[in-house]
Amino acid sequence: MSEIEVGEYIRTEKGLIAKTIGFDDDNNFLLDNQQIITKIESKKIKHSKNIIDLIEVGDYVNGKYVYDVFENANREKVIKIDCMRGYLYQYEIKSIITKEQIAQIEYKVGE
Asked: Which residues contact 81 (CB under 8 A, 6 or more apart)?
């Protein structure tokens, strides 16, 4: 996997999505949500210039459940958000809640 660059989006193992905005004095990544990712942590992180590349089935985009992420006939990444004809493109993404974030706040009854 290539090195993360400033301006790329990242997705951590815990489901955090953020954009890299620079480096601190120790050469750790500064994120737009005011968090820091160390160089060691960065080796386990998915990253891309396109945020749609980090969306996974089970996430919620714009409040809608993600059923699939695929490339269409024009080789554009598309998010399927319902069983009928609900699709989103990169430019339509306004908010993301990852499946890992949902699992962190979920309360399971009877366990």
From this structure: 61, 62, 64, 65, 66, 67, 87, 88
pTM, entire model? 0.88
- What is the three-state SS of 30-93? EECCCCEECHHHHCCCEEECCHHHHCCCCCEECCEECCEEEECCCCCEEEECCCCCCEECHHHC
User: Position of tokens 């399971």?
Assistant: 108
**pLDDT (tens digit per residue) in 75-106:** 999 999 977 778 999 999 999 999 999 999 98
Q: The tokens 């890299």 sit on which residue? A: 20
Query: CA 107, 54, 77 angle in degrees (round to 5)?
Result: 125
10 SS3 class: strand
Cβ atoms of 14 and 41 closer than 8 Å = no
Q: Residue type at 83?
A: C
CA R_g for the chain: 15
CA distance 18 to 59: 15
